[in-house]
Each structure stands twice: as C-alpha cells, then as structure tokens.
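User: My collaborator sent over this chain with a note saying "see what the structure looks like." That's all I know about it. Can you take a look?
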Amino acid sequence: MAWKFWKDRRGPAAPPSPAPAEDEEILKAVRALQAGAGPDAFAPIYRRFSPPLRRFFSRQTVLREEAEDLAQKTLFQAYEKIHQYRFEARFQTWLRQIGENVWRNAVRETQAAKRSAQIEPLDPADVEGRDVPVHLADQGPTPEQAALAEERMKVLQKAIEALPAGMRRCTELRLYQDLKYREISDATGIGLNSVRSQLFEARQRLKPVLDEYFQGADF
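Assistant: Without extra context I'll predict from the sequence alone. Here is the result:
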C-alpha cells in the first residue's frame, strides 16, 4: 500500500500525477544519474517532487519544519538509491514507497521517544536493602572520547568550509544553530526554496564525511 494507505489513515490525497512531458524529463534524469551523472542531474526530480512531498507530510500530525525534514529525507534517500530503480513501475510509485518508509520510521521514532520519556528514574530508596549505596556511572566522555570527538568536528568543519559560500552559511546555521528552513531564509535573505536546494546539495557533498565519522548522521 502506498499513498492509499496514507489516505485511509491520515486523510491526504495523493499528489497529482505528472504530465507525460514531465514523466520523460524525470526518466531522462534517472537514466543520467544511473549512468554516472553528478548531483545536478537530480534537479528535475527535486523540483517535481519536493512540493507534493512537503504537502503530504504537512498534512500529517507534524510541524511544518518536520514536514520539510521528512520531504528532504525522502528525496535524499531516492538520490542515494537511484540505481535500485528498475523502470518496472512508474518512478512516482517507487518514490512513494520510499516516502512511506520514511513516514513509518518517523512514527516509530516518535513512539519510541514517548515510551522512553515515560520510564521512571530509579529511586535509591527503592533499592532492596536501604543501606546499600547506589553508584551512578560517570556519564561524561573519557579524554580519549573527547579528543576523538574534537578531531571528527575538525574534519567536518573542513568539509563545510569547502562548500560554496551560500551553501556553507546555510549548513552552518542548520548544523550549529539548529535553525529551521524558514529561519535560515530569514537570517540569510535567501529564498526558502533556495535554502532547501542548498541544504539538499550540502547533504550530498558532506555524505562521505558524515558516513565515515558520524555513522551517517543527517541534518
């Protein structure tokens, strides 16, 4: 079940199907990417599907900023998995399946966070044998861990500094100040759609560093 599953559960309508000319443009972009073209070849796919994905996620029980993140995550996963598309179904259908998985994972993560928040902390008075002291482990990083974290941040910062100026500014505001897309737009004077595009490309360029040093962390 793809968009129908979501519609039954949440109520949003499926995004409109692209016109035939747009279909060919999308397939041409997919073929180019599978043939080894650079990230710029993904631009038609990003332009075509970013708005309907944002509309879909915004209809769910998430904030606008969360909808932005989920739409970006869906498109980024599509870019990473583009070689898995076999032209056996419409590209839009294939993308829907990725979006559905992103949404389900987001729901699971939210539910897990709620369950974790409901766990009551251990009260030393409840320990069997009231005279037995409770020793809490030191939660701070070891000197070795701190040094490794600092080295990783240096590698990341060097990679960020290699980005074009506008992209670097957007990335720093997103990573270091945790600003939302609209807040980045306001802070930089860059249009909201440009912010989305800049951060999308920044993810592509920084992916090797994030995968190697930060276990595939996203931003």
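A starting point for your reply to your collaborator: The chain has two domains: 3-116, 145-213.
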